[in-house]
Design brief:
Radius of gyration: 17 Å
Largest sheet: none
Number of domains: 1
Structural class: mainly alpha
Shape: globular
Order of helices and strands: HHHHHHHHHHH
Strand content: under 5%
């Protein structure tokens, strides 16, 4: 898992630099950083979402996934977990949980995460994840400068999620149809659009509650491979 390990290191390094800059940068610079990150997140999300070839599957997956996530109160549970971690580590950063969740979603919903992890897991080059590592490292500087140390701690769920995909690909990657990868990436794009809207403070979107859509799209493609468009 060379690509994932490098990715984790760049997030921690970039986040640490962002924490140092946080004490020196005027608020106006932090604000413009976030506007750039938010706009790029929207661009990335739209470009990924438009790659879908199964629109009805996507809609059904998003609706059912969001209902499941809302019923399970995923976002609320993650916020509670983040607050407990902050309290246990005696961290004073009031945006710790927001930084943790925002960074995790930004780093893990992109197409490079899925494609790169699967490619490396199937014995290919870690090139895609190394490119992603550079992008995440730069992004973590901006995020940590505004949201604090929670961005650095996002490296932990990043390792679990991205590393988990790599390990699964090692065992089952050769059996995964390409359409599954495309549609997983498209669902991730929709989630990134919601994240971008939240980063730009247009409206708070409960993106975490929509995460089950990633599982639902796989189930729907398996159960209804020829349904709709």
């Amino acid at each position: 898992m060379l690509g994932t390990i490098v990715n984790v290191i760049t997030v921690v390094a970039g986040g640490s630099i962002g924490l140092l800059l946080n004490k020196k940068l005027p608020d106006r610079f932090v604000k413009i950083f976030f506007q750039v990150v938010g706009l790029f997140t929207l661009f990335l999300g739209f470009s990924m979402a438009l790659e879908t070839t199964h629109v009805l599957h996507m809609i059904m997956a998003l609706i059912t996934g969001a209902v499941i996530g809302e019923a399970l109160k995923l976002e609320q549970r993650m916020e509670t977990l983040g607050d407990k971690l902050k309290s246990r580590l005696k961290l004073g950063n009031e945006k710790f949980t927001e930084g943790l969740l925002t960074a995790f979603l930004l780093y893990c919903m992109g197409s490079l995460t899925i494609l790169g992890a699967i490619e490396e897991g199937m014995g290919g080059s870690p090139k895609l994840l190394l490119i992603k590592s550079l992008m995440d490292g730069v992004s973590s500087v901006a995020l940590a400068s505004g949201l604090g140390i929670g961005v650095v701690f996002s490296a932990i769920p990043l390792l679990i999620y991205q590393g988990g995909i790599t390990l699964l690909a090692m065992g089952f990657g050769e059996f995964l149809p390409e359409v599954y990868i495309t549609e997983l990436s498209a669902i991730g794009g929709i989630l990134l659009i919601g994240l971008g809207i939240s980063i730009l403070e247009i409206k708070k979107i409960k993106v975490m509650n929509m995460l089950p859509a990633l599982l639902m799209i796989v189930i729907l493609l398996w159960l209804l491979p020829d349904f709709g468009i």
